[in-house]
Structures are given as C-alpha cells and as structure tokens.
C-alpha cells in the first residue's frame, strides 16, 4: 500500500514532469517561431522573374527575395496613421516582353529616375556606366509606363531596412517577362556585407534573375553582395523615413507598408 507521504511525492514528481514538458514545448515553439521570422527576413527581396527585397525577380509564380547571410531579428512595427495621399486616377497596365530590350542608353551619360509617389517625390541617380543593362531596362520600362500606378509592396524594418517596389502585381511575383544579369556586384560601396543607406538595388531570386523589382535602402542594411546596385537616392530620403515610420502590416518587421505607397508616375531622363 502506498503511504500518504509517498503519494504526495509521486504527485509532486508528476507535476514537476508536466511543468518540464510544458517548458520544453514552449522553448521548441519559440525556436520554431524565431526560425520562421528569420527565414522571412532572410528572404527579403524578390520579384517578377523574382524579387521581393527584397525578394527576387523571376517567373509568374516566383518571388524576388534578398537573402542575408545571417537573418536579423524582427522589430515589430506599431500601426500608425497613413501619412500618404490618395493615388492618382489610373490603373496598372499589364505589360510583358519576351526579351530584354536592346541597349540604347549612353553608358557615359547620367540618368535620373523620378518617382512621383503618393507619399512624396523620390529622385534616383542611375549608374549607367556600372550597370548599363539594368539602367537600360529601367529606361525602357519607365518609357512604357510599366511602373505607373504600381504599389511599393514590401517594407522591412528589422536588420534590413528597405522599401521594395517595381512589381505590377504588388505580390512579389511581378516580372517584365525577361531576366537581367547581375551587374556591379563588386562595387566598393558594398563594404563589410552592408548596403549603405541611399543605395538603389535590384531584388532577385538568385543569380541572373533580375527583372523590374528594386529596393531603396533607407538605413544601412546587412546583405550579401548579390543584388545589383545601380543607383543612389538623390532626393526623397525624408519620404522613405516617413514611410518607414508608419511601420509595416505584419508587425514582424517584414510586410506590406502601412503607408499607401503608390508610384503615380515614373520617368527616366538623361
């Protein structure tokens, strides 16, 4: 017969074992959740042929993603009022091309990309000398109205600080129908695995999968040198800071911006 004292010890032991089991399961769930968050942020930019800043630029079902060597910890964003205005009248045109446009830009010239957005104007200086095929593609697509009325669909706010745009689907899967080669990956500006604030770069889904999706770096971001840097933010950093300040929708540091960021008109001029 089990004594009352033995019974109490048995019940205490069983209670302790249940507590330990719950703690082990909680730690397992926490590790799994952190791994999911890290994976989501590690795959940051991709698009069309695949980007989603970063993400990747690929086929219709692909997503462009920017992959970091080590995933940053997520910084949840608080919901804030939308700081942007209403989009201009008009709709995204469904444009697709079978092959990359012929190289027609002047590689020795300076080109500027102007983004008139619902949140304010952003001006980008494009480096035709170092990334001629990328700049040529943007010159071509902007001339066709490809970027007009498109949403900037991704904002990251933890470890990687970028706004990703250039996807007509606003889902991370938009593509112009062709893929671009990587360019300028050995740019000396990319020191120590960092894309410095002010960088304009391509999102992709792997080597040679650039399309139309690109990301704007509003704060130094740890990324491997796998994403074609093809320009610099010349004006509108205050606009990007305003967008970032409004946070992103998932609350995990990587999702759609709370701000309604729409490119009403994009132009590339010499």
From TrEMBL:
> Known Pfam families for this protein?
Pro_isomerase
Q: Name one GO molecular function term.
A: isomerase activity
Q: Point to the regions of Basic and acidic residues compositional bias.
A: 1-24
Residue limits of the PPIase cyclophilin-type domain? 120-268
The record, for InterPro entries, names:
Cyclophilin-like_dom_sf, Cyclophilin-type_PPIase_dom, Cyclophilin_A-like
Q: Where is this region: Disordered?
A: 1-32, 61-91
Q: Which reaction does it catalyse?
A: [protein]-peptidylproline (omega=180) = [protein]-peptidylproline (omega=0)
Q: Which UniProt keywords apply?
A: Isomerase, Rotamase
Could you tell me the EC number(s) of this protein?
5.2.1.8
Q: Which family does it belong to?
A: Belongs to the cyclophilin-type PPIase family.
Protein purpose: PPIases accelerate the folding of proteins. It catalyzes the cis-trans isomerization of proline imidic peptide bonds in oligopeptides.
Return the protein name.
Peptidyl-prolyl cis-trans isomerase
Whose protein is this, by species? Answer: Streptomyces enissocaesilis
